Integral membrane protein (Streptomyces adustus), 256 residues
Amino acid sequence: MGHWLYRNIVEPGKLPLLLALMSFVVTFAVTRVVTRMIRAGRGPFGNVRAGGLHIHHVVPGVVLTVAGGFGAVASGREGFAAGLSAVVFGVGAGLVLDEFALILHLDDVYWSEEGRKSVEAVVLTAALVGLLLSGFAPFGVNDLSQDEIADRGTVIATVAVNFLFSLVALSKGKARTAVFGVIVPVIALVGAIRLARPGSFWAKRCYRHRPRARARSRLRAYRHDRRWAGPRRALEDWIGGKPDPSPARLPGPNRH
């Protein structure tokens, strides 16, 4: 394990990236635990306020992200300063993306249905960074044997093909399939072959004059969402907490 870590992480200069990913995931997990305790009224934690203003944790997150980013640029890829900057950046990124939905909607939607976008952003970011560390980006490793060069060349070629399939899947409106398809070739291939989701770039360009394809696309999307919406919501609730129920709206045009 130590030899693999040195050859694939330390020697190529990926240790700061590993530290950033670990601090990112830990920060998100700790933040969600603390916010869920505040929501439940448990523990010694509470919302941070200054002069009656609620200070969201995205604010210190932005400060830490900027400080860690500039520190990483100034320190390079090696040394204690690089590792420290990576940790600071990871902590800041974890705080920022935990409130990604707030930035997107410019509203405090943390515990609402729209707040689920924060969990999705964190999961996708962690998956992408993990991809760089998992050996699928094996650049910067020195003194490789011919067999190792051949193996890594095969990996790089495979990733390149998977990446093309993933781009097709992304154009078909399948973001999660595109991300995880880079790691698992079958996922990328299936996502690239199957029908595009309604409203995606692919559907708008390729299904404009194909009404049967548009109808099949809508039907497939409906069946897929009906089948997987429940498990996906349960997983997101387990990771980020169950959102508050949406307020009931009065029927009719004069509900105000």
